[in-house]
């Protein structure tokens, strides 16, 4: 019997204790663990434990279809978690500016239902800041013209959270210190890294080895999300489990601070990061990409 990887949506038919009527039952949900017993989170949020030796059939199922509203809600929480140093709503677009550092902090996201297709005002908003007008376009929230060149295709991956203790070898702080910045080794201003709207942010460090950032923000439907970002392992410490250690600490921190689900954004060609997050229970929620506005073609 081959057991699917953690994070897979599964159907398990298993034997009940002797004398039960009926003798078999089924459980459908997300596989949370495979040892020492199988653990499945159902649609209702219940966690069902199934002994491996009681399993009769286990099947991997396709993921539950993601609604457009769910994409909008997650993207809203994500925009608040990485908002740059300036933000403004322009025609239904959430515009962000972060000194030109990182695409995410310097792009406009179509978060309102009545988002405008006339993008002149968005282009002007960025022009006044001497920045190129960049759009962040998640699946289904805005039609991408077929001839528009896209960049940085991202997988937005999500998982459920469970509370737990944060490992003692991971240091958490509300701001990145010199060791964190040295390991991260990207020229992102501290005010961009620490920015969050209506939420909280935390920085995790395994001294001299690995760092990551997380923020808890709330979506319009009330769901509190933890967003993982800025994950980096020092070259000399790779393939030693530090990425998993630092991410696990942040996931537990988020759950302990009221987040029920987590997400991360991974470039679609980063196979090692995708494999890591899949092994931690993340699965594809939707995709997103960036488009630079071409001023002569300002209406999309």
Automatic annotation (TrEMBL):
CC annotations in GO: ribosome
Keyword annotations from UniProtKB, A to Z: Ribonucleoprotein, Ribosomal protein, Transferase
A Pfam family of this chain: SH3_Rv0428c
GO molecular function, one term: acyltransferase activity, transferring groups other than amino-acyl groups
Lineage: Bacteria, Bacillati, Actinomycetota, Actinomycetes, Mycobacteriales
Protein name per its UniProtKB record: Acetyltransferase, ribosomal protein N-acetylase
Domain N-acetyltransferase, first and last residues per copy: 142-300
């Amino acid at each position: 019997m081959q057991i699917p990887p953690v994070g897979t949506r599964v159907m398990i038919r298993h034997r009940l204790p002797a004398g039960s009527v009926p003798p078999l039952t089924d459980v459908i949900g997300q596989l949370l663990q495979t040892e020492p017993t199988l653990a499945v989170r159902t649609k209702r949020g219940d966690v069902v434990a199934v002994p491996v030796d009681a399993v009769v059939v286990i099947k991997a199922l396709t993921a539950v279809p993601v609604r457009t509203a769910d994409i909008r809600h997650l993207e809203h929480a994500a925009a608040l978690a990485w908002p740059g140093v300036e933000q403004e709503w322009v025609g239904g677009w959430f515009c962000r500016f972060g000194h030109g550092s990182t695409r995410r902090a310097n792009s406009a996201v179509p978060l309102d239902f009545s988002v405008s297709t006339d993008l002149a005002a968005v282009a002007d908003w960025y022009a006044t800041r001497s920045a190129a007008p960049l759009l962040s376009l998640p699946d289904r929230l805005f039609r991408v013209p077929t001839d528009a060149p896209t960049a940085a295709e991202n997988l937005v991956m999500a998982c459920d959270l469970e509370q737990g203790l944060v490992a003692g070898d991971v240091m958490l702080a509300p701001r990145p210190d010199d060791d964190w910045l040295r390991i991260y080794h990207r020229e992102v201003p501290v005010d961009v890294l620490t920015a969050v709207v209506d939420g909280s942010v935390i920085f995790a460090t395994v001294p001299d080895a690995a760092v990551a950032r997380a923020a808890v923000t709330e979506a319009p439907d009330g769901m509190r999300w933890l967003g993982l970002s800025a994950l980096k392992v020092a070259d000399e410490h790779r393939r030693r489990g530090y990425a998993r250690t630092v991410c696990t600490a942040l996931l537990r921190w988020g759950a302990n601070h009221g987040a029920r689900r987590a997400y991360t954004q991974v470039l679609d060609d980063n196979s090692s990061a995708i494999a890591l997050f899949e092994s931690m229970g993340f699965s594809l929620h939707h995709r997103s990409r960036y488009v630079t506005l071409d001023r002569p073609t300002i209406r999309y």
